[in-house]
Design a protein that fits this description.
The protein is an all-alpha fold. Helices cover 67% and strands 0% of the residues. The protein starts with 9 loop residues before the first helix and ends with a helix.
Length: 472
Amino acid sequence: MASNSRTPNTGLACLLEQAKWSRSQFAQIINRMGAEAGLELRYDQSAVSHWVAGTMPKEQVRPLILEAFARKLNRPVTHSEAGLVVASTGHSAARTASHSSAETSIHTSPTGPDQARVNTLEELVDMGRADMDPSRRGLIAAGLFSAAVVVPLFPDLAQAATPPPAAPGKRTVRIGAPQVQAVRTMTDRIANILDELGGGHARPMAAAFLVNTVMPWLKAEAAEGVRNDMLAAASDLVYLTGWMAMYERAHGLGQRYYLRALELAGAAGDHVTYCRTLRGMSLQASNLGYGRRALELADSAAEASPKAEPRLQAFLSGQQAHAASMVGDKRQAFTRLRETETALTKADNRRDSIGGYDQTAYLFHVSHVLYEFKDLPGSISALQQSLKAQQKNERQGRVHFLAVLAQRQLELGHLEAACGSWWQFLDDYEHVSSARGDEHFETMRRRLKPYAKTRAVQRLRPRIDEVAVLKG
């Protein structure tokens, strides 16, 4: 005998409370919005009570519910937040199994391009909202990275680049080129904050801007060209947010952001942004030690790229060199390094916050390649040259570079030099909020333990203790 038990929809109940609507009022609002959308609805208080109790509203009514709350609360409201997610097993997430004369069961989720776009935007809202909240950030960051994740091809994404479904009724917001520029300007500012103060400060800002400003603009009225430009600008912001999550060791979350950035780039028809994101996914795979996967993604990014300007070409081939060295392909690694160096000599002096690549990044890749091929002195020398070329405000990058340099100097047996590099590391690290910096700090303390009685470490010890207190 089938069970009639239902799981109450606490999400919907919570939204009704936030909106300060009675169930009768809400029913009337849904009926009125249905008329805007050409639907003849006759809901009353009892229907809303059924929804709160766990009955799933009809498929065509769910967008009305989300739009009603979004208008009232002046923020995006997702299917997940409203308890309107339909599980792939054929049952609603808000109930196990239920039927009523007023509502029908929905056994499959729509899978067309419009629905895919809605799912992309809604997932970004849910991810961003959790990323803004310190109490929830640890939960979403706990997801696992998948080396086997399927990466959508650009032609497939571009074919699905249809406008999102129109919300019921008339839109009250129309966007233009100034809003697109605002997203690009904010992305640049957030990238600068990342460089100077670390991802621990910059990522919540990016998530808040994404949820509160960019998502409503993506759903607003716009000319086709403006809409595509906004999708491309949003893709860059999502890519940057994913890069920060990766850098903060939240690799599962970073991968999810990257996949959403690919989808937005495809919807925008922006081939360059798609390739940059693939390159970011290659970097993530290389950071986790998946050399073969890193090379596949780096090669895919380079192959998929349209005719690239020199800086983008260097950005892509530098990562190919790093990944090739991880799988022991010496010939390809050094060929790619030569290509990268040649491309950089042809590049202009523009410093891009997204997809930027310069002499510092190139020399860091040289260091990686030399280290993979057991040239430890050459790797150290390249790192030192990279640090000399680095911009003064790139503090987060310098924290990482200096920590890697110190570890390699210690590996070579140069304790005094390693302590000197770690001293510089501490000077920058105390100003930066970075999970990777925290990891380097603990690595430093662990690796110096065997040398605790040496003069070099004893000189460094008070500074280590001082920074440990500052970091709490």
